[in-house]
Amino acid sequence: MRPSGNVSHGMALNEEGQHYDVFVRTWWKHNASWPNGLEPHLGPKVYIARKVTETEARSIPKDGNQDHRPGKLSRKAEFEER
Fold first, then answer.
1. φ and ψ at 31, to 5 degrees?
2. Could you say which of 3, 49, 64, 72 would form a disulfide bridge with 81 (CB–CB 3.0 to 4.6 Å)?
């Protein structure tokens, strides 16, 4: 769940205005013809935070994924570079 690009200098880049968006989505969809009734499928992104720092972007999904079970469709939080 790492953003693309050079993240080794993330803190320095962040201070210069680099921001991230945090979102949740599912990784499966119901399909009776697939094993266990689930087909791999990336669901739509539902944004829960926008224009946050790298530290916040890492913290929000980590905390959210620990506090909530992903469920049958594996709904999880992620982040991406803006």
1. -160, 105
2. 3
Tokens of 12: 């320095």
Torsion 10-11-17-20 (CA) sign:
positive
Q: Residue 63: what residue type?
A: D
pLDDT tens readout for residues 8-53: 444 444 455 899 999 999 999 999 999 999 999 999 999 999 999 9
DSSP code per residue over 63-78: HHHHHS--TTTT-EEE
Euclidean distance between CA atoms 40 and 34, whole angstroms: 9
Identify the H or E element spanning 36: none
Tens digits of per-residue pLDDT, 68-79?
899 999 999 999
- Residue spans of the domains in the chain: they are 19-81
